[in-house]
Write a structure and sequence with these properties.
Blueprint (H helix, E strand, L loop, with lengths): L19 E7 L3 H12 L4 E5 L23 H14 L3 E4 L4 E5 L2 E6 L2 E10 L3 E3 L6 H9 L7 H4 L8 E4 L2 H11 L6 E4 L9 H9 L3 E3 L6 E4 L2 E4 L2 E3 L1 E4 L3 E3 L30 E3 L10 H22 L8 H7 L1
Parallel strand pairs: 1-2, 1-6, 2-3, 6-16, 8-9, 8-14, 9-10
Antiparallel strand pairs: 4-5, 5-6, 7-15, 11-12, 12-13
Helix pairs in contact: 1-2, 1-7
The structure holds flavin-adenine dinucleotide (FAD).
């Protein structure tokens, strides 16, 4: 007989402060919302706490997300995913979790003065791209117009044979520039603060690939000339290659092991080393893409369900009329 909290029980309404839920999902991006959909359809009660700044929300129009031949905006995709998860009973609350702790055989998450208890938790908190130094309104305007782009895998196709600059240096900058070279021959690697950190071998590599190395002055950006200008040169798009901050801060205090670059380490079923705690999406080392985040969300949800089933029966109660008929 199933003993987990039921959504219909007002005493354990997951929207209520201090409630106990089967599954708490921290983060309402593609990874977290896919997991929430699966978990709700496994008849588990699921609460998503989301701070509301998914990287996907920055996508003006995604053209590489399968199933949308005319493209889909990030905000539209997130809204559809949220609706779909809620259709099956997932609850989504705007809240930034500021602490996660273990208690008994579960977890307690707090956001300001509020707290929620959960038997299992999925961290789907994503990453934040480091931005080039420029005023925020200029950055946001350029991003919306496709003058600044963050994901060559996603939208390199859109800059085919265009004038492109990569803002970056070192290994990361060189790698990104070489990747983009298969989309365009008009490519420059721009030193983010005026000075490159490139060894002679890297300079040769760039030269051989026909990539211009721009340095000497701190870049000043302006939307002008039908594109975005840096040091008098007009680009159709700039790709910052400045790394990112992994939103893994909730994981450290509960003892989660880290993988490369500060991402959370998981097994092939999205389990962290902490029993009952899972991770999916960009916060885990892997391809930072919507499809990948969704895939990991589905795997994580299924593992959460199966692990919960080992701890307690998830069998549904026999409906009363059937019970009565059998007697
Ligand atoms: C400009 C841009 C364009 C892109 N274009 C594409 C594209 O065309 N195709 C593609 O496949 N990918 C694209 N991507 C990448 C894609 O957006 C990400 O891979 C995807 O959003 C990752 O999903 P996620 O759920 O792991 O993380 P996110 O979407 O970043 O969601 C994480 C969520 O967790 C929440 N959160 C974080 N910390 C907390 C906390 N403590 N408490 C509560 N909530 C928290 C955040 O508010 C956020 O809502 C693009 C990215 C950018 C920036």
């Amino acid at each position: 007989m199933r003993r987990f909290a039921a959504m219909s029980d007002p005493l354990v309404d997951p929207m209520m402060d201090g409630a106990i839920v089967d599954c708490l999902v921290v983060g309402g991006g593609p990874a977290g919302l896919t997991a929430a959909l699966y978990l709700a359809r496994y008849h588990l009660d699921v609460l998503v706490l989301d701070a509301g700044d998914s990287r996907a929300a920055l996508i003006p129009l995604s053209r590489n997300h399968a199933g949308y031949p005319e493209g889909i905006t990030g905000t539209d995709l997130l809204a559809r995913m949220g609706q779909q998860a809620m259709l099956y009973g997932a609850q989504i609350l705007p809240a930034r979790v500021d602490a996660l702790a273990r208690e008994d055989d579960g977890f307690i998450a707090t956001a300001g003065a509020r707290h929620w208890r959960a038997r299992s938790v999925l961290l789907a908190t994503g990453v934040i791209n480091n931005r080039p130094t420029m005023p925020k309104p200029l950055h946001d305007d350029a991003l919306a117009r496709g003058l600044i782009r963050y994901c060559p895998i996603c939208d390199g196709y859109e800059v085919t044979d265009k004038r492109v600059g990569v803002i970056g240096t070192g290994d990361h900058g060189v790698r990104e520039a070489l990747f983009l070279r298969s989309y365009t021959a008009d490519l420059a690697l721009i030193a983010p603060d005026g000075r490159h950190d490139l060894d002679p071998a890297q300079r040769h590599q760039l030269q051989d690939a026909g990539i211009l190395v721009v340095e000497g002055t701190t870049p000043v950006y302006e939307i002008a000339g039908g594109g975005i200008t840096v040091g008098g040169r007009v680009y159709d798009s700039l790709y910052p290659a400045l790394g990112s901050q992994i939103r893994s801060e909730l994981a450290g205090p509960v003892g989660v092991e880290m993988a490369g670059g500060g991402c959370l380490a998981v097994d092939s079923h999205q389990r962290t080393n902490v029993p009952g705690l899972y991770a999916a999406g960009d916060v885990v080392l892997g391809l930072d893409q919507i499809s990948h985040a969704m895939g990991e969300g589905g795997v994580a949800a299924t593992t959460m369900r199966n692990d919960l089933a080992k701890r307690q029966s998830l069998f549904r109660a026999v409906p009363e009329p059937v019970k009565a008929a059998a007697q």
